Amino acid sequence: MTENQECFTQALALFDxxxxxxxxxxxxxxxxxxxxxxxxxxIARFAPEASEAxxxxxxxxxIQRWKVPRNTYPMTKExxxxxRTGLYTxxxxxxxxxxxxxxxxxxxxxxxxxxxxxxGIKSNPDxxxxxxxxxxxxxxxxxxxxxxxxxxxxxxxxxEIIRKTWKKMSKNAQAFALSGKLKLPEPLVPLITKAIS
Length: 197
Prior knowledge:
- The structure is a single chain.
- The protein is mostly helical.
- The chain has one domain (5-196): Orthogonal Bundle (Hypothetical protein af1432), CATH 1.10.3210.
- It has helices at residues 5-19, 31-46, 52-60, 77-101, 106-116, 125-148, 155-168, 171-177, 189-196; strands at 25-26, 29-30.
- A two-stranded antiparallel sheet has the order 1-2.
- β1 (25-26) and β2 (29-30) form a beta hairpin.
- The N and C termini lie far apart (37 Å).
């Protein structure tokens, strides 16, 4: 239960309305709207007692992501990192503006912006919760399609990707991933097992 149910419901509705404008489709729905719902579904499964700020942050994590395309930055490693940083700031600011419209106070807005902006991973519980939920959603819903889109990646590259994802996760999220409560992508299970053993 959230402290301010009215603001919370309103903020989620505004986030969803913003993501419903996504011109990209996934399973017949706007791509980022589907992603946001998967994030909320995952936090309800993984951490039903999560803070109000964390619940808002996971729903807003990719908010209007399509508005900052990767190709607006140089196609280099530095360009990629600059794009990610720019994206986090854009998404945090967008979430903050919509929360303001929903009637939230600045303290709660700042908490959510900090998590969406990926500030303080490992030290800020809301940011770590967002990282955990994003990693779990990636494993369950997106890892297999990502693997199929990268036929040029060899096993070593895959082990590196899986280990990087695993390292971002808290011990709780790692335990949840292996508990049988997460639907692991069947063809990748041997790779996942090898990467984390």
